Amino acid sequence: MNRVTKVRVLAAVMAVLAGGVVAAPEAVAAYRPPVAATPPMGWSSWSSLRTAINEQAIEAQAKVMHDSLARYGYDYVNIDAGWSDHVDEYGRNAANATRFPNGIAAVAKYVHGLGLKFGIYLVPGVPGAAVAANSAIKGSSYHVGDIADPSVPGNTADDGSARIDFSKPGADAYVRSQADLLASWGVDYIKMDFVGPGGGNVVADNRPDVQHWQAALRATGRPVHLELSNSLSFADVDTWQRYSNGWRIEGDIECYSHCVGLTNWDVRVKQRFTDVPKWVPHAGPGHWNDLDSVEVGNGASDGLSADEKQSVVTLWSIEAAPLLLGTDLTKLDPADLPLITNREVIAVDQAGRPAHPVSQATPQQTWVSSDGHGGYTVALFNLGSTSATVTANWSDLGVRGPALVRDLWAHRNLGVARGSFSATLAPHASRLVKVVPF
């Protein structure tokens, strides 16, 4: 086979790889993937709706996801904080009846009816209201007062909750009763927020909570994704990896009063480039590094330039991070849609192979990961404030000889490159390419 023919064959192979590998129908039917076999994709309510959520708003988001985004792999519809305003007779969080008059199970049923998955928000510990009521623990002869230690925070939120003492009888029953309730509602995903050690407002240690929650969820027989938030302690990554399906490596992506828009490159995005590399070896099927919501989709209100938006999706994808959109799906900007529906870029995320930077000595950085097929996925980032050239050297990738380069954002083969590939990038811009040696 001569060189020209070989290049043509490689180009054809790259086109096939870009579209993904399709399993035989009998293989699909026989295989049931574990929870979080690939990074989750979907939407979360916090960034765009905050606590102004209700049944109609969530169902409206789900309808847009079904109509416009599900075909690309987005399937989780996650309610964040604000859905609960009291506890039930067993000390478990219960829905705000004004906002959710038909209950959470009815919303989950609607979401499932669209072929999507449903998620909800919790914090660890015993709610202060349950402590005050000394609620009975369902399925046991114990009460909350038998298991709660009000002298120690139940989480890092400083919300008046109490620590669960898992050495006490009834503690497991309390967590199991919560897990059983959520499973009965049809919950597929739990964001457990203010988990410590890590970020938050006060110090708390929720490692026992995470362990017992994972056991309780498995006992329900329902596959439920358990995601931890926020700014989890890196020193405890082995615990997060063993007992959860993902963990936030940072604080919130939203910058609230610190900027205009949902987020901001300098205030929130840039630090993720600095902080994620040490977490890379710990991510993989079943447990992923979470960079927080993707704030792309609502035009100027996102707070990012077009180049910055592409760089956000590039980083999240090459890091195999969850792609959970934080924008209002009912207000999707057509100009942003190509950034969140590019199948080749999404395939990088779903391949689940987190990249590492070759060097972070300068703002012009090359990040790389093996693609699992003998090639490499390479991202070029200009994190600086002026235009600059960024180069991926084949020697840094372990590539000897020439390689075929494909631009994943443009869906275009760029031809053969020998020794390196370079791009001149505007401030905060990026390129994402596939490199196939031959």
Question: How are the secondary structure elements laid out?
Answer:
Blueprint: H1 3-19, H2 25-30, E1 41-44, H3 46-49, H4 55-69, E2 76-78, E3 84-87, E4 93-95, H5 104-113, E5 117-122, H6 128-133, E6 148-153, E7 162-164, H7 171-185, E8 189-192, H8 207-219, E9 225-228, H9 237-243, E10 246-248, H10 265-275, E11 288-290, H11 306-318, E12 323-325, H12 337-340, H13 343-351, E13 356-357, E14 364-370, E15 376-382, E16 388-393, H14 394-397, E17 402-407, E18 412-418, E19 420-425, E20 430-437
Parallel strand pairs: 1-2, 1-12, 2-5, 5-8, 8-9, 9-10, 10-11
Antiparallel strand pairs: 3-4, 6-7, 13-14, 14-15, 15-20, 16-19, 17-18, 17-20
In short:
The protein has helices at about 5-20, 25-30, 45-50, 55-70, 105-115, 130-135, 170-185, 205-220, 235-245, 265-275, 305-320, 335-340, 345-350, 395; strands at about 40-45, 75-80, 85, 95, 115-120, 150-155, 160-165, 190, 225-230, 245-250, 290, 325, 355, 365-370, 375-380, 390-395, 400-405, 410-420, 420-425, 430-435. It is of the alpha/beta class.
Folded structure, characterized:
The protein is α/β, with parallel strands linked by helices and 438 residues long. It is 31% helix and 22% strand. It has helices at residues 3-19, 25-30, 46-49, 55-69, 104-113, 128-133, 171-185, 207-219, 237-243, 265-275, 306-318, 337-340, 343-351, 394-397, and strands at 41-44, 76-78, 84-87, 93-95, 117-122, 148-153, 162-164, 189-192, 225-228, 246-248, 288-290, 323-325, 356-357, 364-370, 376-382, 388-393, 402-407, 412-418, 420-425, 430-437. The strands form five sheets. Strands 11-10-9-8-5-2-1-12 form an eight-stranded parallel beta sheet. It has a six-stranded antiparallel beta sheet with strand order 13-14-15-20-17-18, covered by helices on one side. Helix 4 packs parallel to helix 5 (104-113) and helix 11 packs parallel to helix 13. The longest helix is centred in the first third of the chain and has 17 residues, at 3-19.
